[in-house]
Give the backbone structure.
Amino acid sequence: MARVVVGMSGGVDSSVAAYLLQQAGYEVIGVTMQIWQEEENRLQEENGGCCGLSAVEDARRTAALLGIPYYVMNFRKEFKEAVIDYFVDEYRQGRTPNPCIACNRYVKWESLYGRARQIGADYIATGHYSRIVKLPNNRFTLRVSATDAKDQTYALYNLTQEQLAHTLMPVGDYSKESIRETAKKIGLSVADKPDSMEICFVPDGDYAGFIEEYTGTVFAPGNFVNTAGEVLGTHRGIIHYTVGQRKGLGIAFGTPMFVKELRPKTNEVVLASNEELFSDVLYADRLNFMSVEKLTGTMRVKAKIRYSHKGAEADISMAGEDMVCCRFLEPQRAITPGQAVVFYDGDLVVGGGTIISAKLPSRSAL
């Protein structure tokens, strides 16, 4: 009997994942990853948090109902180094990171899989809405989930071949509604628990406030400028802004203005019209390929530039040893440095990377 460690966040998806694997004949062990528990329990409850004390309580109740062993493992050190420090550093450099992608690769997979192997497990499993397939070329990749509305492949593009080969994602074949129905049928207390919507270590959504408190640094005001370099006013500090932002600029114009670019070296925030936010090209590095070992020539894909993006047709080709050029057939709005771009061939993930720029970056920017 194969042994699987299920990462139990206390939510309905991972709880039902444990049940489905148990029904499929696996020896299931439940584990909650203790990574960030400084917030008040009330905030964790309101946000359906995956990291707080309520998550432990809910997961423990589920494990008891299923009759499976359950453990809480401390991953705070790994989470701080791989997620929080990365998150803060990216913002300080004028980029907008996706901490969940880093958490998935380096904590929920790399660290958890290491612990799982120590206790003799063959696999780890999660409640993500995604599917894993092995292709004829013997490579593993992700296939979009059965329900597009909940598909989470975008946030998982960075997993390695080793991780994919030893991962199970049983809820990827189901809709959210059917998962909740299953939870109700077997009497899980989390059947109607709301999904986590915010970054777990910033439950109030005030990223800039968190960064200033975490670093003990107040980020200096600087100039708003237009694309011609003309000064338009004063901003509150570069960490308060992201590409595409309109609200919260604290400055009024006769026409709508949006953040087009952040320049940390000169502490400038570039503002522009909505039309100036569109670009038909981006460059990305920190690449991870799944369905192919490496990219050769030019490949037509559907590229997603943020989690909520529906994806757009593009041609991708290598532009350096660890840099890809992605040219869209139609210009895309607010391409944001620091965010992930993920490439799809039909419903399969080709790979992805971290957006550097909507223009060819200079050597000094690399």
In short: The CA atoms of residues 215 and 318 lie 37 Å apart. The mean pLDDT is 91.
